[in-house]
Every structure is written in structure tokens, then in C-alpha cells.
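Protocol step 4 of 6: structure prediction from sequence.
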Amino acid sequence: MTINRVQLTANDILEKEFKKSLRGYSEEDVDEFLDIIIQDYEAFNQEIDRLKQENERFKKSAEQPAARKQQTAAAPQVNYDILKRLSNLEKAVFSQKANEKEG
């Protein structure tokens, strides 16, 4: 989900100038209200950034167990292969020594 729907930034709100009229709102009240809105925008942006980082951490941690499973699954096959090769080597060496003793 993107934030394409957001039309204003905190700076847009801060820099907004309103036209003054004879029966307009209190400029001080409007400024105080806009200050609160700016603080909310900044808090929302910080929360969005924090949640994005947390989401990335969750994605990475979800990928790690899958990688560990692949490594674990591959390890017994490698060990079996090494044991098989060692066994064949031992047979070859011991059968050569047995042949040398007989000969």
C-alpha cells in the first residue's frame, strides 16, 4: 500500500497562508490548530517508517528459516556421500594391504 492519497506534507500545512477577511477566524486559533496537525503528520510519518522497518525485519526472518531448512536438508546428503566415499577408500586401501601381505 502506498501513500499516494496524501495530498499535503507537514511543510505544506506549515507554509499555508489563508486570506484574511473582515469576519474571518482568529489567526492564532488557526495557527495552533495547524501546529497540532503538523505534529500528527510527523507522528504518522514516523509510525509508517517504523512499521516499514518492522515489516522488512519480519520478511527477512521469514526467509531465514526456509534457508536453514534447505541447508539442513542438504547436510545429511553431503555427510552420507562423504561416508560412502570414505568407506570405498578404506576398502581399497585395506584390500591393497591384504594383497601385499599375501604376496
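Step 5 (inspection) to follow. Helices lie at 10-15, 27-102.
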